[in-house]
Every structure is written in C-alpha cells, then in structure tokens.
Amino acid sequence: DNKGPILAFIFAVKELIDKYGGIGRLPMNIALLIEGEEENGSGGFKETLANNVHWFKNTELIVISNTLWIGKDRPCITYGMRGMITLSVEVYGPEKDLHSGNEGGALKEPMTDLIKILSSIQDPSNKVLIPGFYDGVDFEEVKRKITMFESLKDSIDMNKYAQSLGIDSVSSCSFAELLSKKWLIPTLSIVDIRTGGGSDDSTHGSHYCFGPTRFSVIPHKVVGQISIRFVAKQDPHKLVSAVENHIKTTFAGLNSSNKVNVKVRNIGDAWEGDESHRLYSALASALKTCWGDNPLYTYEGGTMPVTSTLEKTLQAPALLIPLGQSTDNPHLANERIRSVNLFQGKRVFSTLVEEVASSYQPAESS
User: Fold this and answer.
1) For helices 3-20 and 339-359, what crossing angle results, to 10°?
2) DSSP category for residue 122
3) Smallest Cα–Cα separation from 238: which of 333, 114, 132?
4) Which residues are CB-neighbours of 168 under 8 A, at least 6 positions away?
5) According to the model, what pLDDT value does residue 214 have?
6) Nearby residues of 253 by Cβ (< 8 Å), 6 or more positions away
7) Residue 348 vs residues 72, 84, 278, 287, 323: alpha-carbon distances, Å
C-alpha cells in the first residue's frame, strides 16, 4: 500500500532538483527509504537500517506519510500512534481430537475453557478487567485532550461513520470521547479463535471445517488470538505480564485438567511526537500554504513501529504527514488517493523541504 504518498514525495524531489539546477544544489540532502513489507511485519528492517546507518548521517528530519486525515476536507498532522502487542492463548489437553457423541461430558473441553478465559477479559462496556491494564495512562491528560478534540467534531458525521463500519450506531459517548477511545486509551481485541495448533503446529486438524462430522469433533487444542493497543507512556512488558497473570489466574480457577499457554507474537512501539517542536510549525506552515487552511492535529489508534525505530536509530524527529482522506480505504484492498490530494501532497513535501532548509541552523563545531 501507500504508493500514492511515495510517488508524491519522489515527484517532489524531482521538481526540487529541476528548480535548483541539480542534485548537488538542493537546499538539503534528501534520502529516500522505501520499505514495502510494513503490512507483513517489516522483517529485517531494523537490522538493515542499523547496518547502513552511515547513509543517513546527520539526519535533521524524518518524514513519513502512511497515516490518514480524520475527514475529507481538512489537512492533518499525525502526532501520536498507539503501540501493539499480539499474543495467542492456547488451551490444550487430550492427545487427539475426540468425538462429541462418544466423549462429550466426560472431560473439560479446551474450547469451553478458552471461552471462559476470554469472557473474563472485558465487561459489557468494553472496559478491560485485567488488573494493571491501564497502568501508565494519564487520565487527566486524556480529559484535557477530549476538550481539545471537541474542535474536530465537524470533521466527521457520526452517522456516516457508523455506516462505514457497517453498524447501526457507534458508542453513545460524545464524538470527542469516541476519539479518545480510538486514540488515547489502551484497548484489547479478540481477533480470532481457531482449532488445532495454528500456523506453527503440524496438527492443524483442518477437517473440523469440512464434511458431515464438523459438529461432532471436540478439538484437542484451541488458540485465541489477542491484539492489544497501548499508549506511549505504558510499559508493554509490564502489560504482557499483567495479561499473562490474569489468564493463568482465571484458568487456575476453572480446576481444569487441561493446560494453558500464552505466547507473545510481536510487540510494536507506541510513538508520540512533540507538537511544540519547530519542525511542526514548519509543517503547519507548508500545509496552510498548499491547502489554504490550518491543519488539524490528530492521533491514530493504529501502530507503526518504524517511526520510533527511525527516530532512535537516526537520532532525529519524525513528522507523520497524511495525504489521503479518511475514505481512501488505507491499508486495505482497493486503497486509493484522490488526484488533488496526490498533487497537493507533492507541493506539501517540496514546500516543507524549503521551509526546513531555510530555518536550519547547523550546530557550531566545538
């Protein structure tokens, strides 16, 4: 995905080269780092960057365009994203699958145990019941930002938003509170339940899904997949420990002969920018120059660990500049970008380069 913003930046660089009469006359050095496996975990990216960090020596600014506007009309600056933890909960017992007609009722079944564990995680209002899950969240800051988010309420039609999700209505809270839940509060989602061992187990038991016996098989092993989104001030490792403790404590209370195992699949860093930094002022100026309107400052509930990786490795601040509208279907099938956003995005990038170059003051040598 993200081909539109990548091309916008490439063409912006091409126009700057033409404008200044050659690469060597650009107002600042520009390096393009294109990584095409973000949706597949970005395997090897961190190591490749570390092994070739000399290519990016003295980086002043990192620009990433892989987020989206909150609506359809106002340009935005993304200055925060949640982190992500993916883990699986495995419950297993019998050595093999059993027939529900012959063995049902004779044992505690792995599927039933897993459902009981997962049902203990949230209350009816979606509040996570795991002790320590919200540790590190500054709820006073959340309240302050809810007040700030009231200025964004005209950017989204709540009824149309619900329709885009394929539901009748969204949460009964206010628009600003809804944004805080999507952006500033940690969440836990149960995203999959499957029988067998999953992709890393040779005993998939795929016959559960096919044929006349599909309702007669008691699986010997079941796996629930959990996705957690956490905020920048939380410690993801403490969060993992809290989840593991809750699952094991809940399972112990079942007095089951089965066994439970929690596997952490991946942890991606949260990220939060400093909107008071002078580079944000330069970006806001570039956006207003190109779009004729002040940008909205927004968060995103998703995760892009590459942002913090680049900041830490290159020792430079990152700016996240969304180009497309909220209706562009980003990161999904049939992603698109409106032509006016593509061309205006090119202008934003080139204008930003010139804004930053004009304000850059190199450090004096000691």
Assistant:
1) 50
2) B
3) 132
4) 162
5) 64
6) none
7) 17, 30, 17, 6, 9
